[in-house]
Every structure is written in C-alpha cells, then in structure tokens.
Task: structure prediction
Amino acid sequence: MSSKPEDLIPYGHQTITDADIESVINVLKSNWLTTGPAITRFEEKLAAFTQSSDAVALNSGTAALHAMLNALNIGEGDEVIIPTMTFVATANVVVWQGATPVLCDVDSDTLLVTPETIEPHITSRTKAIIAVDYAGQPCDYPALHALSEKHGIALLSDACHSLGSIDANGKKVGSLALMTAFSFHPVKSITTAEGGAITTNDPELSKRIRQFRNHGIDLDARQRETSKTWRYQMTQLGLNYRMSDIHAALGVSQLSQLPEFLKKRQRIADKYRQNLSSEKNIQLLKVRNHITHANHLFPIRVPQRDAMYGWLRSQNIGVNVHYMPVHLHPYYQRMFNYRTDMFPAAETAFNELISLPIFPDLQHDAVSYIIERIIHYSVKQ
Ligand SMILES: *Cc1c(COP(=O)(O)O)cnc(C)c1O
Result:
C-alpha cells in the first residue's frame, strides 16, 4: 500500500473470529446469560494466564479499578497516588470512593511511575499507589513493591494496557501487585466488548470484590440455586458491576488467541522501531531491559505534534493522543487545584505524543505506508 487508503486506518481495533462468534452464540442458547458458568470459565482461565490465584470478572476496567479501592476500604481522608499520565478513569474512581487522588509525575523516557516520582508525594494519609503500565510496558514492580513495603501502603496496578506483558523477573502482569485491574474494551489486548477484571492472590480481597460487584450480597443467584436457598444477606455497600456470560464467553475465546495477538502486535512494534529509531525528529519511548511488552499503544514523540497529527489524519492514518495528563483537565483543576507546570515530564511528553495505529490485524503493507508517510513529513520539517 503506497497510496492513501480509502478508509481511515484506526489506531486500535478488535479481532473477532468465527470461534468468538460461536462461543457467544452457545451462551445465548444456554440457561445462564449472567453470573453463570462462562464467568467461572473466564475467571479460571484469566487467573491461570496471569499466574495469579484468583480473577474476578467485572463489567468494565473502571469498575475493576473502583472495586480494588473499595476492597481496601479506601475512603474519606485517604490519599491514593497515581500518575498524571493516565486515562482519567484511574483518578475518577479515587474520587468516587471519597478519597483524594494525589497525582505524580512519570519518568520522561518510559512515561512510567518510579519510586523517585512517587516518594515525594507519600504522606501519613497515603493508603495506596496505583501504578499504570503505560502503553503496555510493565512498571518496575519489584522496586515499587519495596517502596510500598517501606511505607506500609498498598501497591495496586492499572494494567488496562498490559495484559500479557511480563516483568524483567519473568513474572506476568496480574501477579505483581496486591491487586491488578484489567480492561477488555475493544482496543485493549483482548475484548469482551465492555468488561474488566481484577486478579489477586488474596482470597479475602477477591471475596470482597465478588460481593461488591453484586450489591454487597453474600451469595449470588447461582450459589443460592446450588444450595437451594432463597436467603441472602447484604453485608457491605455494593453495586451491580457484574459481567454477563455473553461477554465472558467472548473473553474465554479471546484469551485463547491472546498469545497470537501479542506476537502480531510485537511484530508491528518491531517494524516501527526499526524504521523510525534513526529519524532525527522522532523520539521513541524507552523499553526497559528484559521485559515483554504488550504493545497496546505505539506512541512516538515529535516536535510539531499537532501539525503531524493533522498531516497523518489527512493521509487517512487514524493517529491519536494518549493522554492529556489528568492534572490539565478542567475538573481536576477546579476540584483539586491542579495547575499547568506541576508535572514537567508528563506535560512535555503530552505536547509531543502521538500514538500510531497498532492492532493484531493491521496489515504489514499498511504499516509500511504509515512509516513512509511519517518519514516523508518529518524530513520536510
Ligand atoms: C481503558 C482504560 C481504563 C478504563 O477501562 P474501561 O474498561 O474502558 O472502563 C482505565 N485505565 C486505563 C489506563 C485504560 O487504558
């Protein structure tokens, strides 16, 4: 493909196979549309994949982030540290729990939090850190774990970008923090249309999360049917954050394909790196040694970002920007007094960032076309 494609190449896109469709249809023909056996299958498969002892399915990544905080009783008077370079959902759930989101800067080469960017923000009110695996690269969890132990605070992970990534110590994301949140929105590693999950090795926490997703009730409908009782008790305040079996069946089928999806994403990322790394006006993000990247996003940094954005869009290349930092959003400026210039590494990156298309079915001639258009433009700069 050397000429402009007819349709916009999206920055991310789901891959749905016949096996996925059949898996969903089978649930529609069964007795359980929600809280049924497909949920159990999905949870068991996800726990095994992430080398964690338990997984709890929820109806979004945001619900997963919220449920993690609720499981720790985080509320009024508590502070939770999160990077400003993230999607707003990471901060919003802290506010919904009645706690204060304390934003911090990120390392300028990786855009990940480090002990150095977090530690100055720790106070006696800090209850947790939510590390964000920006673009699909795992943070340095052993280092973050040491910091959280030193201060007696919980280490949580927003791994909405990084399902399938592996830390330098060989451990899978999902097993590296006290609790880890995943999203299965269509652009993520696998999809359930909408959906999310938490993995943890702590059975008390997963029990609390299971109750929270079901109104805070101790027995769900299937458990009551199995034990032939109508009785249930509400033991904590909860919500309906349940995933349906239709969504879970798609998740089961998608998880089987995840290794293949990851390989395809890696090949695209490698091709971008090989072709763009020596361009003088283009800066790539640093990849930590010995990690396996999930390549959810492929952000590059360019000096004239908005001009580059306009040019690539005009060439039907669906680039995007991830993210405007949380502290620049009007809500966070109004409610929490955040201001421009507070987090220089994240802000400088934000002004230069542009995410190139990457998804398993992105064809290699399309990748070549994207590379050619980028170089064509940046040489003229
Ligand atoms: C996608 C995403 C979320 C939210 O997930 P949803 O499933 O859309 O609710 C949260 N944090 C990050 C970093 C994400 O990329």
